[in-house]
Amino acid sequence: MPVTILASTVSQVRAIIITCVVTFFVLYTLSDIYHSTPKPGSSSIESHPRTNNLAADRPVEQAGPKPEDEPEDASEKIPIEEEVIPHGVSVFMPDNFSKHLVLPRMRSEDVTWLTYLPEDLNIITKTYLIDPDEGDTLPSTLTVPINKGHEAQAYLTYIIEHYDNLPDIAIFTHAHSTAWHNNDLQVSSTPVMLLELNYQRVAEHGYMNLRCHWKPGCPGWIRLNTTEYDDFKKEEFVMHESFMELFPEEVMRDGIPDILGTPCCAQFAVSRSRIMQHAKERYVSWRKWITDTPLSDEVSGRVMEYVWHFIFASPSLTRNADRAVYCPAEHVCYCDGYGYCFGDDAKYKRWVEKRDRAREMAERLEAAEEGVGREEGEDEAWRQEGIKQWKRELKKMEWECEVEMQYARRRGSDAKLRRGEVGELEFSG
């Protein structure tokens, strides 16, 4: 029996075939554009480069829903049009605190980064020249009595000279614009830290180490009773005797603490009241100790580096052991101190781990592109395909890290979310 195929059926089959062919070519083209085959739940959106402009006039457009809508898995985050909060823009309300920035510097150090600090930040810079040229130094130049004790000499000189005319908040930093010991999330930049800092936290808590990362310094870096010399922390071996010389009253009252712990590296902000809880004469005596001690410039400075938090500790802490350790949780420091709120400690640590994996992959990729590990007779096409795969994976990880950081900054801009993350005792408005 002959089979009759209607013309309409032929047309339907032809339409289905054409649709399939067109769909295949569309998918193939998109796969080529994004260097990967589309997969369910994956994102093919190009990563926007992070802006390095400080206090940019026009933010870069970036991905991200509102913080309260944040999904658990970064790969599920579907970007929407929303302005990014660029580095150097504070998420906190403006304040009216008067501020001094105490900045020890050598003649060779470039401090033009100070121009990044706007007038409405209300910061007056007090630059102390550590190595003045007597024949080429203006009379108005701030200097120190002796170049010894690293930054501590300038810090103490500032307090002594301004004790009767202190601002609401004094900020003590080094002169370099970037340094390994500055905060990682703030591109290791001193001006970015100062622009994003929550000065209300300094005013309410009285003292804040500007570095959030624990290593080196926390939780118990200096063992005051050690008998072993560690060249990596020379100050530890002499800290027991130095502590007794610096704090005889405190030692007589409550003994010597077993450990000292605080994030390195002698950059902090402190309120007027915390400075004035000690008489001016004590600061004079501490500066004299630096001058008179047989310890070197480096070691005497390192001793002071790990006692600033003890000097400016809250008067409510009566035990030396309690005053000896200042180690706020990293996610708390970033959240309430700078407005980077990842949700909780675990989420912050997961972000750090992902960022570290991305950096490790970037290093491996760079080495591979330079030919490191290439074996004789290795198929070059296969090798290049492997490099392309790494690039795709790296691009995805970097994009996810950037998106999650933007979620963190938007959470940080919400006082309610910030309070919920850090708790009532740490929250500072």
From TrEMBL:
Name-wise, this protein is (Perigord truffle) hypothetical protein
Region (Disordered), start-end ranges: 57-79
**Alphabetical list of PANTHER family matching this protein:** DUF3431 DOMAIN CONTAINING PROTEIN (PTHR37490:SF3), EXPRESSED PROTEIN (PTHR37490)
